[in-house]
Fold this protein.
Amino acid sequence: MKTDQLQIGSSLGALVLFEALATLEESSTKSSTPLIDSAIFISLPASPTPKEWAKVRRVVGRRVVNAYCTSDLVLAGIGRLHEVIGGGRTTSLAGLAAVNESQLGIEDIDVTEVVDGKLPCFVQEP
């Protein structure tokens, strides 16, 4: 029995989802049928490499979406804090900008107009 799975993660949940899918790809038996139908990452607080995006892409059958908000002040603050504490410069977080990996089948969706940037998008009132 085939079940289509739509996985959606927001903020740290998006990071957990991303890592889980990457781990699933590493431990899978390389079957021709992906286990996940679509995965949507909202405000992903990470800077995945093309190789990491490709791992996720291999276990998702249809859509892999990076929903980002260029004015997400909370995520920008977290990214800056990570730079200061970690002592290094990180590349742009996926949740703040397009990842431009369309050749891997990653869709970028700018949700800046939908949220006001003061609060994470998952707590916005309609």
About this structure: The longest strand covers residues 6-10. The chain is about 30% helix and 15% strand.
